[in-house]
Amino acid sequence: MGELSNKMVVRRDETGTKQTQVNTDLEVVVRQNSKLAHLVTKGGKRIALVTLAGLIWIQPVIGIGPIAGPALTAEAAASQTVKLSEEMITSGAKLVKYEYTVTRSGKPVKVLTDVIEVDLTNPYVQLDVMTGKGGQVTTRQSVEGMAKETGAVAGVNGDFFATGGQGVPMGPAVSKGTVVTSPAQLQGMYAFAVRNDGTPLIDRFGFSGTVFAEDGSTFPLAGINQESYMTEPDKAYSHVNKMFIYTSAWKSEERPAASSTTPTEVLVQGGVITQISIKAAIPGPVPADGYILRAHGTAADYVAAHLQVGQRVDAVYQLQSLTDGQLVDPADLKMMIGGHTLLVDQGKASAFTRSTTSISGGSAVARTAVGYSKDGKTAYIITAEKNSNSTGLTLKELQGFMTGIGVWKGLNLDGGGSTTMVTRPLAETTPQLTFTTSNGAAGQRAVANGLGVFTTAPQGSLLGLKVSGSSTLFIGQTVPYALKGYDTYYNPIDTSGIQASWQASNGNVVWTGSGFKGVKAGTAKITATSGQAKTSMDVKVLGGTDLESLTPGTTFAPLQAGTSVTVAVTAKLKDGRTVDVPAESVKWTFSGMKASVQGGVLTVQSVNNGAKFAYATPVYDGFNGTPIVLSASTETIWESFENMTYPISFTGLPAEAKGTVSIVQGTGEHANSKVLKLDYDLTGGTGSKFAYAQFNGTSGRAIPDNATTLTVDVLGDASLNWVRAELSDADGKPVYIDLARPMDYTGWKTLTADLTANNIKFPAKLKRLYVVNVEEGQDERALTGSVSFDNVRFTAPAAGGSNPDFPSAKAVMVIGQKSMTVNGKKQNLEVAPLLKDNTTYVPIKYVLDVFGGNAAWNGAAKKITVTRGTMVLELTVGQKAFLLNGVSSKAEVAPIIVNGRTLVPLRLVSEQLGIGVNWEQKTKSITLES
């Protein structure tokens, strides 16, 4: 068996002799016709580990307990599927990471997918539903929160739920034979279950139940713990003339909210009616020792006629397959969780059993799915990532991946922003986020329920050790590392009694006593040694050559002494990853001011005489990042809504979008001021939906020239919709500004948007503030809601529209000539403008010399950074992509190098530097003027 980078393993006696559990007071001896290695414990004892001509290393694989199978290696699972890695989570469950290649627009696209494979025959691993907080519906919680609360070692998000509702799964949920929620009366919705004998089941289910009164009468039950909804296909109100059971698994005191019905409720405890409330809800939550029958209409009439306090009442219910009619007793199920359309059947992509339009079936988004193998022995819990490293999958692409890895039957779970997977790394004690969700910095979404993986294995003996810590670090960053162990069931085992010494293979990292510190770029092997035993891990110290971009979170700040702003820096690596750079690893250069950065906070100490602009540039290992622009500026309150002198009106798209705008007295911290309130109802129509508060008819109102930031106080509704502003530039071109994307909070919050990256041509106007629910992922966001706005303000450079730092000039260049005239005077050029492939290139250095601005050259990255006022333009030789104030854009052609000078496309000069350009074909001359 070959050496693997970070796992040291103890093997058992070939005769099957059981190992003694490791602790600090025992010596473990394992005999296998082999040599013995020893660990040194903190108590001075020695623990023997087996070696065969040295150390034995194995890759853990699935096994039902102490006996492990052969190692698995990285391999192609299908023609488009490549296995990247696999690691045990616990006995019977492992995490397998794949790269799945799909073809879009004729080009290959690589997508990262993550699969938890669960051995359903393993007695030490179980699947179960995780529900909200405290196991109760209507509460919602992140997948990581649910996993930690329930003790799961892994988990994913589960069923669909109405984002704007109470947070109740749409489908059935059964945990250990108990119904948490019944299936809603919706068409084409499938569910995944595991029977008590361990066999999996995927089917469509209905609910049937009956209430038996003491007088012998009966009444049908419609469901358990269900939110109000419109039934299908009849489009009826779910709770009209119906009777439902609500158990203590229902947290909310509204049973349910917005049902369009008046409830009659019956409290049953110990099978006996203890309270009846006619046409009113019983106050308080459902008690743990009972349940409430919630009735309306004909069901309420039945209660009045047949049920009395003190009488016995019984409720009997079961699930029923809607495909073959077979009844399913919930007591026969270990678990069940609802989902959406069927994706795979008989090992092939199936027809969708429900419309996928509302879940963006044709768009590449994050996805979650579950399925099982043909022999019914393996469950596959699947996610497709959408983040800076991966683009997500369409449902058809997801079907292809699932069939490729061996799914026999599978269904779709909630996706998009809900898609989350957490897994417990080998030898660690708690589950962690497996990948960054599509919400990015917003983190994990709180969801209705999840599918959890649980271990029931007893404590085993020490099987292996590993180095725990990050495999990458930055220069100057200290990362903690620890020696951790796992037992024969791949669960963590206490290794606090093992004393280890740490070494590095070279000087790229150095041990500090609690971790390794990055010293210089390169790789290193870090090794933990205890006695004769040791285990290693390869780490990489990232260098400037590993970076594609280095970007501060703040792109603009006011230029004045005392200014203090947070300057968190992120790096995009050439391998596609986006990572946070620790403050201690970033150096800074400043121009136009004296400043410092301490603990990730930039503080301006003084401003250079006459400086209108200043720049703070992050630098990492010689790689210059995007500068922060500081400008002498003033903030103007554009609108306070106190004394309106022009109209504000509502308009919506599509035509079915409804809403109102009004000036009302504010609430909370804005109770003493008037605010603009936008109420919206986007339930009608199809496609992306918009609710606008429109200023001054269709004209809009002028904003300050050269405005750099827009700031608005916004009262949020946690709808997950986007809140945006629409500006119009001097040419009437619309400019869309994100204020909240998404709106994920309630209460008042000050939102600020950077305008400098939009290259706005002034004079400009603010036309609309609005809410948008885009078509992709529309099911995840609320269609109705209300937001309010107050104190709209703009920050603009104090220099205003005319900036004396940038001279007015006229320069004429001629293709092929190493000279130009500037305001009528001739100047020499080291490199001439040229015409190549119908594109005119001009030397950027000389343009800046004439019209103002600076350029910094990064030879290693072949990148030139142009700063001119509030504009920062980053160009890379040979690449069409460029950054304008940190925002990526794309030109038609790339910059080139001629005789050691960077030449840029003429159109880029015109559009991005704001310099007027005229091309004279006859003389092949270029006139630049500002």
TrEMBL record:
<dbReference type="InterPro" id="IPR012854">
    <property type="entry name" value="Cu_amine_oxidase-like_N"/>
</dbReference>
<dbReference type="InterPro" id="IPR018711">
    <property type="entry name" value="NAGPA"/>
</dbReference>
<feature type="domain" description="Phosphodiester glycosidase">
    <location>
        <begin position="265"/>
        <end position="454"/>
    </location>
</feature>
<protein>
    <recommendedName>
        <fullName>Copper amine oxidase-like N-terminal domain-containing protein</fullName>
    </recommendedName>
</protein>
<feature type="domain" description="Copper amine oxidase-like N-terminal">
    <location>
        <begin position="821"/>
        <end position="927"/>
    </location>
</feature>
<dbReference type="InterPro" id="IPR036582">
    <property type="entry name" value="Mao_N_sf"/>
</dbReference>
<dbReference type="Pfam" id="PF07833">
    <property type="entry name" value="Cu_amine_oxidN1"/>
</dbReference>
<dbReference type="Pfam" id="PF09992">
    <property type="entry name" value="NAGPA"/>
</dbReference>
